[in-house]
Design a protein that fits this description.
Rossmann fold; alpha/beta; 8-stranded mixed sheet
Protein backbone atom coordinates (compact mmCIF):
# COMPACT_ATOMS: atom_id res chain seq x y z
CA UNK A 1 0.00 0.00 0.00
CA UNK A 2 1.22 3.54 -0.75
CA UNK A 3 2.18 6.70 1.07
CA UNK A 4 1.01 10.20 0.24
CA UNK A 5 1.97 13.72 1.21
CA UNK A 6 -0.94 15.70 2.61
CA UNK A 7 -1.49 19.02 0.84
CA UNK A 8 -2.79 20.54 4.10
CA UNK A 9 0.20 19.77 6.35
CA UNK A 10 2.92 18.46 4.06
CA UNK A 11 3.28 15.30 6.18
CA UNK A 12 3.97 11.93 4.55
CA UNK A 13 1.25 9.51 5.59
CA UNK A 14 1.14 5.77 5.01
CA UNK A 15 -2.36 4.48 4.35
CA UNK A 16 -4.38 1.46 3.22
CA UNK A 17 -7.38 1.72 0.93
CA UNK A 18 -9.97 -1.08 0.88
CA UNK A 19 -13.19 -1.55 -1.04
CA UNK A 20 -14.86 -0.02 -4.08
CA UNK A 21 -13.58 3.53 -4.82
CA UNK A 22 -17.12 4.48 -5.83
CA UNK A 23 -18.54 3.74 -2.38
CA UNK A 24 -18.91 6.13 0.57
CA UNK A 25 -15.69 6.41 2.57
CA UNK A 26 -15.09 5.45 6.19
CA UNK A 27 -11.82 6.93 7.47
CA UNK A 28 -10.36 5.08 10.48
CA UNK A 29 -8.09 7.01 12.87
CA UNK A 30 -6.12 5.12 15.51
CA UNK A 31 -4.95 6.15 18.98
CA UNK A 32 -1.87 6.99 21.02
CA UNK A 33 1.24 5.17 19.87
CA UNK A 34 -0.92 2.79 17.83
CA UNK A 35 -0.35 1.74 14.25
CA UNK A 36 -3.18 1.42 11.72
CA UNK A 37 -2.94 -2.35 12.18
CA UNK A 38 -4.69 -2.04 15.54
CA UNK A 39 -7.89 -1.66 13.51
CA UNK A 40 -8.71 -5.37 13.16
CA UNK A 41 -8.69 -6.72 9.62
CA UNK A 42 -12.01 -8.32 10.51
CA UNK A 43 -13.53 -4.89 11.19
CA UNK A 44 -12.22 -3.49 7.91
CA UNK A 45 -13.62 -6.51 6.04
CA UNK A 46 -17.00 -6.16 7.77
CA UNK A 47 -17.28 -2.48 6.80
CA UNK A 48 -16.22 -3.19 3.22
CA UNK A 49 -18.75 -6.03 3.13
CA UNK A 50 -21.46 -3.53 4.07
CA UNK A 51 -20.67 -1.46 1.00
CA UNK A 52 -18.14 1.11 2.23
CA UNK A 53 -14.69 2.10 1.04
CA UNK A 54 -12.46 1.92 4.11
CA UNK A 55 -9.25 3.90 4.53
CA UNK A 56 -6.99 3.49 7.56
CA UNK A 57 -3.69 5.26 8.07
CA UNK A 58 -0.76 5.63 10.43
CA UNK A 59 -0.79 8.94 12.31
CA UNK A 60 2.35 11.04 12.09
CA UNK A 61 5.14 9.79 14.38
CA UNK A 62 4.01 6.15 14.32
CA UNK A 63 4.08 3.11 12.06
CA UNK A 64 5.23 3.82 8.51
CA UNK A 65 4.22 7.49 8.41
CA UNK A 66 6.63 10.42 8.74
CA UNK A 67 8.50 10.71 12.02
CA UNK A 68 9.18 14.07 13.63
CA UNK A 69 12.85 13.27 14.10
CA UNK A 70 14.66 15.59 16.46
CA UNK A 71 11.53 17.25 17.83
CA UNK A 72 11.46 17.31 21.62
CA UNK A 73 8.34 16.93 23.71
CA UNK A 74 8.26 18.83 27.01
CA UNK A 75 8.54 16.72 30.13
CA UNK A 76 5.08 15.61 31.21
CA UNK A 77 5.25 17.02 34.77
CA UNK A 78 6.38 20.42 33.44
CA UNK A 79 3.75 20.40 30.70
CA UNK A 80 0.95 19.56 33.15
CA UNK A 81 2.16 22.22 35.62
CA UNK A 82 2.39 24.94 32.95
CA UNK A 83 -1.05 23.98 31.66
CA UNK A 84 -2.55 24.37 35.13
CA UNK A 85 -1.12 27.86 35.61
CA UNK A 86 -2.12 28.98 32.12
CA UNK A 87 1.25 28.86 30.38
CA UNK A 88 1.12 25.89 27.99
CA UNK A 89 4.47 24.37 27.06
CA UNK A 90 5.60 24.42 23.45
CA UNK A 91 4.79 21.11 21.77
CA UNK A 92 6.19 19.69 18.49
CA UNK A 93 2.68 19.55 16.99
CA UNK A 94 -0.94 19.65 18.10
CA UNK A 95 -3.95 17.39 17.91
CA UNK A 96 -5.43 19.90 15.48
CA UNK A 97 -2.39 19.37 13.25
CA UNK A 98 -3.14 15.64 13.39
CA UNK A 99 -6.78 16.32 12.48
CA UNK A 100 -5.54 18.33 9.48
CA UNK A 101 -3.39 15.30 8.55
CA UNK A 102 -6.50 13.14 8.33
CA UNK A 103 -8.36 15.66 6.20
CA UNK A 104 -5.20 15.90 4.11
CA UNK A 105 -5.44 12.18 3.39
CA UNK A 106 -8.92 12.78 1.97
CA UNK A 107 -7.63 15.77 -0.02
CA UNK A 108 -4.76 13.82 -1.52
CA UNK A 109 -7.11 11.03 -2.57
CA UNK A 110 -9.65 13.41 -4.05
CA UNK A 111 -12.36 12.54 -1.50
CA UNK A 112 -14.82 15.34 -0.80
CA UNK A 113 -16.49 13.87 2.30
CA UNK A 114 -16.27 10.85 4.56
CA UNK A 115 -17.57 9.16 7.66
CA UNK A 116 -14.80 9.40 10.27
CA UNK A 117 -14.22 6.88 13.04
CA UNK A 118 -11.59 7.40 15.73
CA UNK A 119 -10.47 5.27 18.68
CA UNK A 120 -8.98 6.74 21.88
CA UNK A 121 -6.65 9.55 20.75
CA UNK A 122 -8.13 8.93 17.32
CA UNK A 123 -11.51 9.83 18.82
CA UNK A 124 -10.04 13.15 19.93
CA UNK A 125 -8.67 13.69 16.43
CA UNK A 126 -12.00 13.05 14.70
CA UNK A 127 -13.69 15.34 17.21
CA UNK A 128 -11.33 18.07 16.02
CA UNK A 129 -12.06 17.16 12.41
CA UNK A 130 -15.70 17.88 13.24
CA UNK A 131 -14.72 21.17 14.91
CA UNK A 132 -12.53 22.45 12.06
CA UNK A 133 -13.76 20.54 9.00
CA UNK A 134 -17.37 19.69 9.80
CA UNK A 135 -18.50 20.34 6.22
CA UNK A 136 -16.30 17.42 5.11
CA UNK A 137 -17.84 14.88 7.49
CA UNK A 138 -20.95 12.85 6.77
CA UNK A 139 -20.82 11.38 10.27
CA UNK A 140 -18.45 10.93 13.21
CA UNK A 141 -17.95 7.98 15.54
CA UNK A 142 -15.86 8.56 18.67
CA UNK A 143 -14.77 5.28 20.28
CA UNK A 144 -13.38 4.95 23.84
CA UNK A 145 -12.43 8.63 23.86
CA UNK A 146 -13.02 11.79 25.89
CA UNK A 147 -13.62 15.53 25.90
CA UNK A 148 -10.29 15.99 27.68
CA UNK A 149 -11.89 17.61 30.72
CA UNK A 150 -9.44 17.35 33.63
CA UNK A 151 -12.18 16.77 36.22
CA UNK A 152 -13.25 13.46 34.69
CA UNK A 153 -12.14 10.26 36.48
CA UNK A 154 -8.57 9.41 35.58
CA UNK A 155 -7.17 6.17 34.22
CA UNK A 156 -6.61 3.28 36.58
CA UNK A 157 -2.99 3.28 37.71
CA UNK A 158 -2.08 -0.12 36.25
CA UNK A 159 -3.46 0.88 32.82
CA UNK A 160 -1.63 4.20 32.43
CA UNK A 161 1.59 2.73 33.83
CA UNK A 162 1.50 -0.10 31.30
CA UNK A 163 0.80 2.23 28.38
CA UNK A 164 3.54 4.73 29.24
CA UNK A 165 6.15 2.28 30.56
CA UNK A 166 9.52 2.94 28.92
CA UNK A 167 10.83 0.40 26.45
CA UNK A 168 14.04 -0.84 28.03
CA UNK A 169 15.24 -3.10 25.22
CA UNK A 170 14.76 -3.24 21.45
CA UNK A 171 15.19 -7.01 21.46
CA UNK A 172 12.16 -8.61 19.85
CA UNK A 173 11.13 -10.73 22.86
CA UNK A 174 11.31 -7.70 25.15
CA UNK A 175 9.17 -5.71 22.74
CA UNK A 176 6.65 -8.54 22.55
CA UNK A 177 6.47 -8.76 26.34
CA UNK A 178 5.95 -4.97 26.47
CA UNK A 179 3.09 -5.17 23.96
CA UNK A 180 1.42 -8.06 25.76
CA UNK A 181 1.64 -6.20 29.06
CA UNK A 182 -0.18 -3.24 27.53
CA UNK A 183 -2.86 -5.49 26.06
CA UNK A 184 -3.48 -7.19 29.41
CA UNK A 185 -3.66 -3.95 31.37
CA UNK A 186 -5.80 -1.76 29.12
CA UNK A 187 -7.89 -4.32 27.28
CA UNK A 188 -11.17 -5.98 28.16
CA UNK A 189 -10.98 -8.02 31.37
CA UNK A 190 -10.60 -11.73 30.64
CA UNK A 191 -14.16 -13.08 30.54
CA UNK A 192 -16.33 -15.58 28.64
CA UNK A 193 -17.51 -12.70 26.42
CA UNK A 194 -14.04 -11.34 25.69
CA UNK A 195 -11.47 -14.04 26.48
CA UNK A 196 -7.81 -13.01 26.53
CA UNK A 197 -6.37 -15.26 23.83
CA UNK A 198 -2.65 -15.22 24.58
CA UNK A 199 -1.63 -16.88 21.31
CA UNK A 200 -3.72 -14.52 19.18
CA UNK A 201 -2.51 -11.48 21.13
CA UNK A 202 1.09 -12.58 20.82
CA UNK A 203 0.72 -13.05 17.06
CA UNK A 204 -0.81 -9.57 16.73
CA UNK A 205 1.99 -7.99 18.79
CA UNK A 206 4.67 -9.79 16.75
CA UNK A 207 3.17 -8.46 13.51
CA UNK A 208 3.16 -4.92 14.87
CA UNK A 209 6.71 -5.16 16.27
CA UNK A 210 8.05 -6.43 12.97
CA UNK A 211 6.19 -3.72 11.07
CA UNK A 212 7.51 -0.76 13.08
CA UNK A 213 8.79 0.20 16.53
CA UNK A 214 9.26 3.90 17.23
CA UNK A 215 9.19 4.76 20.96
CA UNK A 216 10.10 8.43 20.39
CA UNK A 217 6.71 9.19 18.85
CA UNK A 218 4.59 8.35 21.89
CA UNK A 219 5.69 11.22 24.18
CA UNK A 220 5.20 13.71 21.36
CA UNK A 221 1.68 12.42 20.69
CA UNK A 222 0.96 12.45 24.41
CA UNK A 223 2.16 16.05 24.61
CA UNK A 224 -0.30 16.94 21.85
CA UNK A 225 -3.15 15.36 23.86
CA UNK A 226 -2.26 17.30 27.03
CA UNK A 227 -1.79 20.53 25.08
CA UNK A 228 -5.26 20.29 23.53
CA UNK A 229 -6.92 20.36 26.94
CA UNK A 230 -10.70 20.37 27.33
CA UNK A 231 -12.77 20.29 24.15
CA UNK A 232 -16.22 20.73 25.77
CA UNK A 233 -16.79 24.27 24.50
CA UNK A 234 -15.54 23.43 21.01
CA UNK A 235 -17.65 20.26 20.83
CA UNK A 236 -20.76 22.24 21.71
CA UNK A 237 -20.50 23.83 18.24
CA UNK A 238 -20.33 20.50 16.39
CA UNK A 239 -23.30 19.66 14.16
CA UNK A 240 -21.90 16.46 12.61
CA UNK A 241 -24.11 13.43 13.36
CA UNK A 242 -22.21 11.72 16.17
CA UNK A 243 -22.07 8.25 17.68
CA UNK A 244 -20.13 7.63 20.89
CA UNK A 245 -19.10 4.03 21.64
CA UNK A 246 -17.57 3.18 25.01
CA UNK A 247 -16.79 0.12 27.09
CA UNK A 248 -18.18 -0.01 30.59
CA UNK A 249 -15.00 -1.76 31.80
CA UNK A 250 -12.47 0.62 30.18
CA UNK A 251 -9.61 1.13 32.68
CA UNK A 252 -7.73 3.71 30.59
CA UNK A 253 -10.39 6.14 29.36
CA UNK A 254 -13.16 5.67 31.88
CA UNK A 255 -16.82 5.31 30.96
CA UNK A 256 -17.57 8.78 32.35
CA UNK A 257 -15.36 10.23 29.59
CA UNK A 258 -17.52 8.69 26.89
CA UNK A 259 -20.66 9.89 28.63
CA UNK A 260 -19.16 13.38 28.83
CA UNK A 261 -18.35 13.32 25.11
CA UNK A 262 -21.92 12.44 24.17
CA UNK A 263 -23.31 15.02 26.58
CA UNK A 264 -21.38 17.88 24.97
CA UNK A 265 -22.17 17.14 21.31
CA UNK A 266 -25.67 18.10 20.30
CA UNK A 267 -27.75 15.09 19.27
CA UNK A 268 -24.96 12.56 19.92
CA UNK A 269 -26.03 8.97 20.53
CA UNK A 270 -24.20 7.05 23.27
CA UNK A 271 -23.81 3.27 23.18
CA UNK A 272 -22.03 1.55 26.09
CA UNK A 273 -21.13 -2.13 26.21
CA UNK A 274 -20.65 -4.14 29.43
CA UNK A 275 -17.31 -5.90 29.86
CA UNK A 276 -15.56 -3.95 27.11
CA UNK A 277 -12.21 -2.39 27.96
CA UNK A 278 -9.80 -0.24 25.96
CA UNK A 279 -9.38 -2.45 22.93
CA UNK A 280 -11.16 -3.83 19.88
CA UNK A 281 -11.72 -7.49 20.77
CA UNK A 282 -12.53 -9.76 17.85
CA UNK A 283 -15.76 -11.11 19.41
CA UNK A 284 -17.01 -7.51 19.55
CA UNK A 285 -16.17 -6.66 15.92
CA UNK A 286 -19.62 -7.56 14.51
CA UNK A 287 -21.32 -5.31 17.07
CA UNK A 288 -18.92 -2.42 16.49
CA UNK A 289 -19.30 -2.75 12.72
CA UNK A 290 -23.08 -2.83 13.05
CA UNK A 291 -23.12 0.33 15.18
CA UNK A 292 -20.80 2.21 12.80
CA UNK A 293 -22.74 1.13 9.69
CA UNK A 294 -26.14 1.93 11.19
CA UNK A 295 -24.90 5.36 12.25
CA UNK A 296 -23.26 6.08 8.88
CA UNK A 297 -26.38 5.17 6.96
CA UNK A 298 -28.50 7.28 9.26
CA UNK A 299 -26.03 10.14 9.22
Amino acid sequence: MPSLTTPTTGIEIFYEDHGDPAHEVILLVMGLGAQLTLWPDELVAALVGEGFRVIRYDNRDIGLSQKMEGARAPSLPMQVLRKKIGFPAKVPYTLTDMAHDGIGVLDALGIESAHVVGASMGGMIVQLMAVHHGHRLMSMTSIMSTTGNAKLPQAEKHAIEALTAPITSMEEEALIAHGLNIARNIGSPDSPEFPFDVDAQRERVIRNVRRSVYPAGLPRQLAAIIDDGCRRARLAQVSTPTLVLHGEADPLVRLEAGEDTARHISGARLVTIPGWGHDLPIPLVPRIAEEIVTHARGG
